[in-house]
Specification:
The complex is a heterodimer. By secondary structure, chain A is of the alpha/beta class. Helix content of chain A is 46%, strand content 11%.
């Protein structure tokens, strides 16, 4: 009877913990933990995301991608600080995710991080805000608006060169697919590993995991012993992104590397000018009179307009604006 | 037999097939999950053994 040896690490011959047909590579625990930061480090350099001396803010949710990103940037020696935004989502979701972030920082010798509690700072949690602003069906877009505002504010106040988010390749490929199917030219034009800062109050946004498969990031977190929040945000259940990710995984099954090729060939075509999106009209930006962040609509930005609505009067005074 | 667990779902399958085949038999996509045995990550070509309890970790998040 023949004995099947199983899949082995390409570097040392030990049993492989992960097989990555997209890279024609199988690795053991030890070499996988070396490979991931090296690949992320190359991505940071390839897209000129930030320099070794830059101060970087990492947006952490308690999920596998953002905690792994924080871990990797720390291992690579970058000066990183975490930012956790407490959205006040019920069912234990926000409480648990905050605990994961705190525990992660503590077990790594007390990594620095800040917490912005949306309810404490602005008077309403995200679900309350969604309910009161009558945008209940659009909780996720409202949450995005609030998070972007807070990230820009903290990056500006703290003098951070960039905000790093944990978007992985599957996130990027799913968004790309969705925007392509709907020919969302504006979004396609803006989708990139780096969003440069166009205003002092708008932080540079970078995605160091944009070439990492979601599966690779989950594997990294498991092998590295990162205790992340496994449950989904209750508002993301049934999200369209998941449907596009499943479709892309079917493609990947037939053609290993399809997701990476889809995303990279899009970036290359844009860079080379093979595909071009109409430049957005030059719009006059002005500073929001309340928070100073840029806005194209009137003298208040979309975030500050939220709090001007009569139905928001029940929310307490916003600490941010009191100074 | 081999037990496959994903969140609150369980499947009982014959031993001897690869993890990948077991995942497919359960009607799941091998790209969407990772497999752990005895607390260790195992690759999808690993052969399942009688009595194995394999925990599957979903890798897709809504983001």
């Amino acid at each position: 009877m023949s004995v099947r040896r199983g899949m082995r690490c390409r570097k040392c011959g030990a049993p492989a913990v992960i097989n990555m047909p997209q890279h024609k590579l199988a690795l053991c625990e030890e070499h996988y933990l070396e490979w991931v930061p090296a690949r992320v480090g190359q991505t940071i350099k390839r897209f000129r995301m930030f320099r070794p001396e830059d101060k970087v803010l990492v947006a952490v949710s308690g999920g596998k991608d953002s905690l792994a990103l924080w871990d990797i940037l720390h291992r690579l020696g970058y000066a990183v600080e975490g930012l956790y935004i407490d959205l006040g989502i019920g069912g234990g979701y926000s409480a648990q995710s905050k605990e994961k972030v705190q525990a992660f920082a503590e077990t790594r010798g007390g990594l620095p991080f800040r917490v912005v509690d949306v309810r404490e700072t602005y008077g309403c949690s995200i679900p309350e805000l969604a309910q009161r602003s009558r945008r209940g069906a659009k909780t996720c877009s409202l949450c995005g608006l609030v998070k972007r505002h807070i990230m820009n504010r903290i990056a500006y106040e703290g003098g951070f060169a960039a905000i790093a988010t944990g978007h992985n390749l599957d996130d990027e490929a799913a968004v790309l697919m969705q925007n392509t199917l709907h020919w969302q030219a504006g979004y396609l034009g803006r989708q990139a590993p780096v969003l440069p800062s166009t205003h002092p109050h708008l932080a540079r946004k970078v995605k160091p995991l944009c070439l990492m498969y979601e599966r690779e990031m989950a594997a990294y977190s498991l092998v590295r012993g990162i205790n992340y929040i496994y449950d989904e945000c209750p508002y993301s259940v049934g999200a369209k992104t998941i449907f596009y990710k499943e479709l892309l995984n079917q493609l990947e099954g037939r053609s290993p590397g399809a997701k990476l090729h889809f995303y990279l060939s899009f970036l290359k075509a844009k860079e080379e000018g093979t595909i071009r999106f109409m430049e957005e009209e030059e719009v006059q930006m002005q500073n929001c009179r309340r928070c100073g962040q840029p806005t194209t609509a009137g003298d208040l930005c979309a975030f500050c307009r939220l709090w001007e609505r009569p139905e928001m009067a029940v929310c307490g005074p916003a600490e941010e604006f009191e100074a | 037999m081999v037990k496959l667990i994903l969140r609150d779902k369980t499947w009982e399958l014959p031993a001897g097939m690869t993890v990948r085949d077991a995942i497919k038999k359960a009607g799941l996509d091998p790209h969407a999950v990772l497999a752990m045995r005895d607390g260790k990550l195992i690759n999808e070509e690993t052969l399942t053994r009688p009595g194995d309890v394999i925990t599957l970790i979903s890798v897709i998040s809504g983001g």
